Amino acid sequence: MFERPGHGERAVLVQIGFGTRPSEDELGELEQLAVSAGATIAGRLLASRTVPDARHFIGKGKVEELGELIRASGADLVLFNHALSPSQERNLEKALSCRVLDRTGLILDIFAQRARSFEGKLQVELAQLRHLSTRLVRGWTHLERQKGGIGLRGPGETQLETDRRLLAQRIRNLTRRLERVDKQREQGRRTRRKAEVPTVALVGYTNAGKSTLFNQLTSADVYAADKLFATLDPTLRGLQLAPGLDVVLADTVGFVRDLPHELVAAFRSTLRETQDAELLLHIVDLADPLRDQRIGDVNGVLEEIGAEEVPQLIVYNKTDLQGEPPSLMYDDTGAIRGVRLSARTGEGLDLLVQALREHFGQGRVAGRVHLDASEARMRAKLYDADMVRRETEDQSGGWEIDVEAPKVALERFCRDTGLNRGRIRPCPCEGMGASLQSRTVA
Fold this sequence. Notes:
It is a single chain. This protein is α/β, with parallel strands linked by helices. It has helices at residues 24-36, 60-73, 86-96, 103-114, 118-132, 159-194, 210-218, 261-266, 268-275, 291-304, 319-322, 349-360, 376-384, 407-417, and strands at 10-18, 40-49, 77-80, 99-101, 199-204, 235-242, 245-251, 279-285, 312-317, 327-330, 336-340, 364-371, 388-393, 399-406. Strand 3, helix 3 (86-96) and strand 4 form a beta-alpha-beta unit. The chain is globular. Residues 138-149 and 428-442 have low confidence and may be disordered.
């Protein structure tokens, strides 16, 4: 095994097409990721294969071609736009005498550079350790007890076993610390729910303009740049849509195709802001020729984190680059389903605020639900959510419960608890002068 260099910034990019031609678009994204990580592109290698090679991922001939390209370009790093197994990564490093990194390792490195908050650094370290735990290799052996002979017996544990034990211990410690941070975040979420302030999470493919839009709406100073994963740590700011109608905007980490599972697991507490939101602003780069594919990639990540049921409002950003005027988009029922705007120039922000007012300005709703005696837990959840205004017990031991809450809060409660929204009857609740018809707030 060769001695890995302490750094490596001149990179050769590798893109393989399996059963098809290698994608220039995917290679372009890899180049953006590499530049975002601080690498200089020294060369590119594209190839086609039927299936990955078990030993080197690419064939023997391509390994030799890659080695020649590395020597000719003076590169000290090879970046694969694919997931490599630990053995493939080690075999390639041995054959090329060069550091090899796969797509997951590259994204983890970018996240490590971008993390600024205490929670973000913990999450990145946890993801890195989980990734590293599958890639431990034998380094030194002079303390191993497997060696025989007088005076050569070690302390009873190999270096590899020691590394694994220390890694497992550190992962447990980080997991416990992140659980404490998540409890603090949950307290904030409960406070917002109690105050009946809905959360709007900005999601989208990385570099779609989420942070720029967030800054325009809230006058915040979140770092925004034309690079992938420019911001990592989530930021929450209040936004008043109208007198008496406030929301909380949450700027979240950008998504990307094939987001590493280690990151999804480590950032689960941060991604809860997306999962628990009442509305997702799905930011789409209108100038991106692959925008439809990007929308599918983002929806795939949302499904992975359990946020696929949260309502979405599509925001097509960067109309200034397309020469299109800002506009609203409507569905067949006449409801707003999307907004075209430019976050950079601010044109169309008034239309986005109008769409948010229409979504959240429908006020509070009230209704009546019947619960059987076996649904005492659901009754307790309604009380915990402070939605119960009156109840009467029937002869069978069940309850007729009058509920009242903001429309978005009631829909979220039904989604989270499994209560069928259709069970809440659209009839007036006595003493409240309200019905299931929406009452306007703004």
